[in-house]
């Protein structure tokens, strides 16, 4: 029955009516964002100008970038030849070139981005592999949708080609993400350890981000609402109260610190949760919904907890039991202090937009900048393996606000 319901949901995507018009572009970036950034660069304002110089020089942001795909089937995990790196590199190039088009009006970047989008749209039919295929669908799905969302207004991208890309996203990425959130790779049983909470939060979060982004890209209110409801109420680890299950009060400041479910696993995965939460909340914000503020700004509480610990300070920890990994009795020092491009977006919102106390998040942002040449890095420059492509980043250029 789940399979039938899923495909019924899928079949209706093209005609699904929004209850309110979506903002376009309206995933991580809006036209107002691009105008703000252009103004900063034109004025030579810092740190935007130096961040732009770095971004503009990225190897994969050049119009000479050689497309690595496309492939009919992308494999992540399993026994087949692993070719998912070709996909995430091409996505990174499409995204960075799309941004350069918006900031320069140079159509050579637009044409290069569209060339990548069209190549995959007319070739890719399946994301496959072992369980890691679900990570590929979620991570690369939300990132690919972001690239296309920026390009949707380009006059050089024919409507039929844009439609072909949207159809590919719905037929290839969306069903895998929905299958995971519905069935959790067969773990939705009722007897421990076969349980919906088997998978760590980032598995859920990337697929929530993917469905949310595809919903906006395709003007599908049902998809978008599904992702939003999962953030609030989903049964897996990716719903907000499962991702951040415990709230502690910091001595001295009285601020809330939100213990993250993956903090007892390692800091690399735990900070990835905040890259994904930031993307989900920013997209919702651009569509008029404040997930940043939900549950007394629970994402901020979690960000402050993660930032404080990764800056080298002690944080309180409540032991807990996981379905697959048993007792977690202490916070993990694995990958502590990891430099991940997460913090600019979060600090810009909580400090710059809301004026809330996000001091640990801000300090972690500055720590990252001290290790990345003064500007947050991102996809394609945050590490050569797949983890460097798990978030889009470049927040100093794209999210920094005045006085922030």
CATH class: Mainly Alpha
Query: CATH homologous superfamily - what is it?
Result: Chondroitin AC/alginate lyase
**What percent of residues adopt helix (DSSP H or I)?**
40-55%
Let me know the average pLDDT.
93
Number of contiguous helices: 15
Helix/strand structural class: mainly alpha
Radius of gyration: 20 Å
Strands, count: 6
Count the domains.
1
Q: Give the N-terminus to C-terminus distance in angstroms.
A: 50 Å
| H/E series | HHHEHHEHHHHHEEHHEEHHH
Given as residue ranges, the uncertain stretches (5+ residues, pLDDT < 50) are: 1-18
Main sheet specs: 2 strands, parallel
Morphology:
globular
What percentage of the residues does DSSP assign to strands (E)? Answer: under 5%
Write the layout of secondary structure elements.
Blueprint: H1 2-11, H2 31-42, H3 48-56, E1 73-75, H4 84-104, H5 107-121, E2 126-128, H6 132-151, H7 159-183, H8 201-217, H9 221-233, H10 240-243, E3 246-249, E4 256-259, H11 267-286, H12 294-310, E5 320-322, E6 326-328, H13 343-353, H14 359-370, H15 395-398
Parallel strand pairs: 1-2
Antiparallel strand pairs: 3-4, 5-6
